[in-house]
Amino acid sequence: MPIKTIFLDRDGVINKEVNYLHKIDDFEFIDGIFDTCQHFQSLGYKIIIITNQSGISRGYYTENDYQKVTQWMLNQFANEDINI
Question: InterPro entries in the record, alphabetically (predicted)?
Fold first, then answer.
C-alpha cells in the first residue's frame, strides 16, 4: 500500500526566508504552516521536511548550529501535535 507523503522545503515554506538561517531568534514560521500540516496529517499524510543548507559548506555556520535550529523547529511542530 502506498504511503501518502508530502515533502515541504524548510526555507520559504516552513519558515520565512532568511539568508543562511542558523539562529533560533531569526526563525519565523510562515503563517498557517501548523494548520496546513495538521490538515494533511489528518488526511493520513506523512510529512517530511527537506532542506539544502549551503551555509554549512560555505563556513557561515556549523552543522551543530543547524542541528540546534532543526531540533527547536521539530519541537515546535511536536507542541502542535504534528509528527514530522
Answer: HAD-like_sf (IPR036412), HAD-SF_hydro_IIIA (IPR006549), HAD_sf (IPR023214), Heptose_bisP_phosphatase (IPR004446), PNK3P (IPR013954)
Say what the pLDDT of residue 35 is. 99
Mean pLDDT of 76-84: 98
pTM for this structure? Answer: 0.94
DSSP labels, 19-49: TT---GGG--BPTTHHHHHHHHHHTT-EEEE
Q: 19 in a domain, yes or no?
A: yes
Which of 9, 26, 35, 81 does the annotation list as catalytic?
A: 9
Domain count of the chain? 1
53 is a domain residue: yes
9 is catalytic: yes
84 inside domain: no
Is residue 38 scored above 90 in pLDDT? Answer: yes
Range of the domain at 23: 5-79
